[in-house]
Amino acid sequence: MTAMAVTARPGRPLSHVLLQWGMVLGIVGAVAGFILGAFIGGHLVPADANSNNSNAALIIGYIGSAVGFLAGMGFLNYPVARLLGLRRPTEADEAFLYGEDGGVGRYFRLNVDHKVIGVQYIVVIVAFLFIGGLGAMFIRAELLQPQPSYASAESYLTLVGLHSVIMIFMASAAIIGPFGNYFVPIMIGARGMAFPRLEALTFWLLPPAALILLSTVFLGGFPTGWTGYAPLADESVRGMDSYLVAFALVGLSICLSGLNMIATIISRRAPGLRMTQLPIFVWGVYITSFLGMLAAPILVAVLGMEALDRIGKATFFVPAGGGTPYLWENLFWFFGHPEVYIFILPAFGLILEMLPVFARKPLWGYRVGIGGMIGVGILSWFVWQHHLFVSGIAPSLRPFYMFSTEAISIPTSIVYLVAIGTLWRCRARFTVPMLFIMAFLFNFLIGGFSGVFLSDVPTDFQLHASYFVQAHFHYTIMGAEVFALIGGITYYLPRITGHALNEARGKRQFWVMFISFNGTFLSLLAVGILGMPRRVVSYDPGLQGLNVSASLFAFVLGASMLFFLVSLIWDTLVKPLRSRLLNPWESLGNEWKLPQPIPVHNFSAPPTGWGLPYDYDRDERRPAVLGGGIAVPEGATE
Model confidence over 148-159: pLDDT tens digits? Predict the structure, then answer.
C-alpha cells in the first residue's frame, strides 16, 4: 500500500505517506500490540496462578493494542525521529499535519488543527450517544414485564453496565470535546492549542477505549455496573478487564485535555485580552479543565490498583489479604463526584454563551456567574462521601458531608440565576437552540430539586440505589448536558459547516424529545419513590404500569434522537449547499466574525480591540472586521 501511495504521488515524503495511511497502520499496530502484550502478560504471571494468567495477558494485551494503534496513527513519528537525530519537520510537514491540503481525508488521520479535532469529537460523541441509546432501548424493553423475558440477570447487568459506561464516555467529552476544542482558541484569539499533538491524542484515545469496552460482550461482561465496585470486580470474569483498561484510557484523555486547555487559556490569549474579558463558555471550560486534570489521575490510579488485584494478587480491595473494598468506594467517588461537574459546568458555560444571543440582551451578572462556577469547582471536592452514607461511613462524618453536599447547591443556584436574570424582560427569539436552552433550565431544575433529597441522610437511606437516583442522574446529565449538546450543535453547525438544520423539523424534534424525556424520567422518579431498586431485571408487579409508561416514553425519546441524527446527516452531508451561512443568529461572539470557512491558523495577525461579546442592548453597535481577522463592536475599547 505504501509503495502504491508513493508511486501515485511522486516526491511525497515518507512521513506524509505514513500519516495518510495512519488508520490502516493503526489497525495493524493494534493487532500486533495486542499479540505482543498478551504474550508478555501471559509470561509475567505464572501459569499456575489460576485465572490470573489469562487476566494479565488480556489487560497487558489491551494496553499493547492501544499503544500499537496510536503508534500506527503516527503519534510516535516525531519523538522517534528526534531521538534518532533525523531531520526536523519542515514547513511542508507541518502544513500536512495541520491538514492545509484540505479534503475529507484529514478527518480520518492524525491532524493537529483544533477545528478538525472538534469535528472528529462531534462524530464520535454522537456515535457514543447512539450506541448507548440502543442499550437504553433494550433495557426498557426488558422492563416491560416484571419478570425476565429475554435476558438473564447476568446478561442484564452487563447490558446496564455497558449502557452506563458508554454514556459516561460520551458525557465526559460531550461539550469540551466538540465545542471546547473547536472554539476556545478562536474565542481567545489564538492560532491553535498550546500542545496540538496532545490535543489530537486526547481524541484518538477514545476509539480504542470504546472498542475495548465493547469487547466485554465476548468475555462474559462485567456485573458491577459503571462503578466497578470491589470486591465484586476481583471475582468477575475477564470482561471486567475490558472495563478497567477502557475506563483508564478515557481517564487519561480527560486529564490530558484538561492540562492542554489550561495551558492554552493561560498562555495563548491574544494581547490585551484579560481573564475578566473571556467569554463565559471559556470560563466554564477553564474551571472544568482543573477538575479533569486533578480528578482523572485518581480514576486511573484506582483502576490500576484493581488491575493489580486481578493479575498480581495485590489485594488492595480484598479483605482476606489486608485490603478493603471501602478503599475503592472512597477513591472512585473522590473522582466520581467532581466528574459530575466535569459534565455540567461546560454545559452551563455553553448555555450562558448562547442565551444572550436569543434573549437579545447582555449576559446578566457575568462576574457573578464566574464566581458561581468557581464555587462549584471548589466545593465539588468536598461532597464525594454522600455516596457512602449507607456504606459504613462513620456517623460523625455524615453531618459534614450532608452539609457540604447541600452547600454546593448555593453556587450552582447562583449560576442558574444568572440565566434567569438574563431572561428577565428579554426579547426572546424562540429558535431551536433557544428551545433547548429553556429545556436545559427546566430539566436541570428538576434534577437539582431531586438531588436535595439524596444529600440528606434520612431520605438518602430510603432512596439510595433506587430508580429515584437513576432518574435524578439522568435529569442532570441527559436532561441538561445532552440537551445543551444538541442545542450547541444546532447553534454552531452553520459556523462549522455553513449548513443549518431545518428550523421547522428541528422544532418538531425538540418537542417530541422534551415531552418524551420528561415522561420517561418522571415515571422513574415515581417508581423509585415506591421502592424499585435499579439494576434489577425483576420487580414488583404492582409497579408494571409505571414501568410500561417509562418504556413507551423512552421508545419515543429514542425515535426522536434517531430523527435528529438522520436530520443532521441529511442537512450536512446529503442536501446540497447553495450558499454558506455566515452568522444566521446575528451573534456578536468573536467566533462568528472570521471568514467561512475559518482559515487553518484562524488569524493572520493577533486580534485586538477586545471586549465582552454580549452588548445586545444597543442595536446600533454592529460588528466591524479588523485587520487581524476578528470583529468587535464599533467604538469598543479594551
Answer: 888 888 889 999
